[in-house]
Amino acid sequence: MIKRDRSKALFERAVKVMPGGNSRTTVWSAPFPLYAARGAGCRIWDVEGVERLDFLNNYTALIHGHAHPAITAAVAAQIANGTCFPMPTEAEVAHAELLCARIPSFERIRFANTGSEAVMMAVKLARAHTGRAKIAKTEGAYHGSYDPVEVSQDTPPALWGNGDPPTTAYTKGTPKGILDDTIVIPFNNAEQAERILRAHRHELACVLVDPVPNRTGMLPADPAYLATLRRVTQELGALLVFDEVISFRIGYRGAQGAFGIEPDLTSVGKIMGGGFAVGAVAGKAEFMALMDPRAGKPAVPHGGTFNANPVTMIAGRIAMEMMDEAAFARLNGLGDRLRRQAGEAFAVAGVPGQICGAGSLFRLHMTARRLFDYRSAILTPAESAATKAVTEAMLEGGILISPQGMGCLSSVMGEAEVDRFTEVLLAALRAVAARGLAAE
Ligand SMILES: Cc1ncc(COP(=O)(O)O)c(C=O)c1O
Predict the structure, then answer these.
(1) Are 333 and 417 spatial neighbours (Cβ–Cβ below 8 Å)?
(2) Which of 246, 281, 307 has most ligand 1 atoms within 8 Å of its beta carbon, as the pocket-test mutant?
(3) d(CA 107, CA 282)
(4) Do 385 and 428 fall within a single domain?
(5) CA 115 – ligand 1 centroid, Å
(6) Pocket test for ligand 1, best of 117, 142, 266, 272 (most atoms within 8 A of CB)
(7) Does 407 sit in the ligand 1 pocket, CB within 6 Å?
(8) Residues 149 and 199 in one domain
(9) According to the model, what pLDDT value does residue 51 have?
């Protein structure tokens, strides 16, 4: 049994002052979430004092786990000198230099405080550059909290129909104009996507795609699909935008380096903030120049009280500096080990299932069916029940992953942690099978 008394007491206080006691829909889980007390390295403690291996890393943001000494020391020194100023700082310049030197398509970069803002800025830049209103996104993909990119994020099977993916509102109250200006393409179906994009050739500002979309099952894109999007956007005069807020962590030069495809603009966040709130849009100088204030009001003005604050910039730069090519190779090797061993655990337990992902990212699926897009990856009720049972059993066994079965590794983990993950997964799968919960 998972101890929850102190979390329950905190939640009872929380619901009196926040809607549902919640500030972040992602961390909600019924009947109430477990509350965190602290983290150190690859471990996290909840408020009951229970220690677990943290394979969630604040939903992939922490590539060095919790409170890495190098980051903590540098941040502590900066905090003693002030946390934010009404002037730019050298810390911002240094972080921008590091990222632009590393990723060829990052000719210029602009910082913000969330991945949602990073995506929003990319969309605004694309619209300003092309003078066109419509954006295209893939069905089922999550790109943060910004009206146009929330569209068709969770289209239910009842609305799928037989034709092209429909535009459906995610948030109640989404204006019709937003739905009209968002074009939805299927993930990993190059032919259909190309046909849909060509039908909107004169109105299309950009195509937004996450190369390893978590909410589409953490299924890596087919490289040929991304190549088609690259070719078609070029032909139509639209921009190709990669959302690498999560998938930036799959390689030294991000997902674009791993897939060998250069987008025009990229939204990043999470790991490049070193554990602090961050987002950034980066890309070709020609497009980024739309934010340049030197000649008067820019085409795309962009403020933000805490943009590029020195605490985030220093933490982010140190985090990224520590992730050199060898560090990425080591971490991704551990990711391969975890996915291989987890795949074997399904076979040994005799439970239908698989593990997807890339680099240090993974997601468990309680089905053996072929997964390739949003619709194939959507969970049946039996799969949802099995996933919940497995992730709870793992939590009980001392492993934290998301309730959807998603997780990632951090650089402070080694083979021992990966092997422990596999042992706990195997025990969880056996327990779930014994309860008759394994899906067909
Ligand atoms: C692919 C992707 N894009 C954008 C975002 C939004 O980032 P943030 O939560 O920092 O606003 C997320 C967050 O998880 C994400 O996974």
Answers:
(1) no
(2) 246
(3) 7
(4) yes
(5) 5
(6) 142
(7) no
(8) yes
(9) 98
User: Does any domain span residue 439?
Assistant: no
Residues contacting residue 158 through CB under 8 Å, at least 6 positions apart? none
Cβ 140 under 6 angstroms from ligand 1:
no
What residues does 100 pair with on adjacent strands? Answer: none
The answer to whether residue 440 is domain-embedded is no
Q: Is 147 in the pocket of ligand 1 (CB under 6 A)?
A: no
CB 252 less than 6 A from any atom of ligand 1: no
- Report which ligand 1 atom has the smallest distance to the Cα of 60: 14
Cα radius of gyration (the chain): 22
Question: What integer pLDDT is reported at residue 264 of this predicted model?
Answer: 98
Rounded to the nearest angstrom, the distance between the alpha carbon of 268 and the centre of ligand 1 is 9
CB 329 within 8 A of CB 344: no
Residue with tokens 């390295």: 41
Instruction: Provide the b/e sequence for 189-221 (b: ≥16 CB within 10 Å).
Output: bbeebbebbeebeeebbbbbbbbbbbbbbbbbb
Taking 70 as the pLDDT cut, the residues of the chain under it are 439-440
CATH code of the domain covering residue 15: 3.90.1150.10
Q: Going by CA atoms, what residue is nearest to atom 9 of ligand 1? A: 115
Shared domain for 127 and 275, answered yes or no, is yes
Distance 165 CA to ligand 1 centre (A): 22
- Domain carrying residue 196: 69-322
Counting ligand 1 atoms within 8 A of each CB, the residue from 270, 271, 404 with the most, and so the one to mutate, is: 270
Q: Are 263 and 241 in contact (CB under 8 A)?
A: yes
When divided into structural domains, the chain yields a total of 2
271, part of any domain: yes
Mark 149-162 as b/e (b = at least 16 C-beta within 10 Å). bbbbbebeeeeeee
Give the predicted TM-score (pTM) of the model. Answer: 0.97
In this structure, the answer to whether residues 28 and 80 fall within a common structural domain is no
Q: What is the pLDDT of residue 439?
A: 66
Instruction: Please tell me if the CB atom of residue 115 comes closer than 6 angstroms to any atom of ligand 1.
Output: yes
- Looking at residue 440, its pLDDT comes to 61
Report whether 275 contacts 69 (CB < 8 A). no
Same domain, 191 and 297: yes
pLDDT digits (tens, 9 = 90+) for 220-250: 999 999 999 999 999 999 999 999 999 999 9
pLDDT of 1 reads 87
CA dihedral of 17, 19, 23, 28, whole degrees rounded to 10: 120
Residue pLDDT, tens place only, 83-132? 999 999 999 999 999 999 999 999 999 999 999 999 999 999 999 999 99
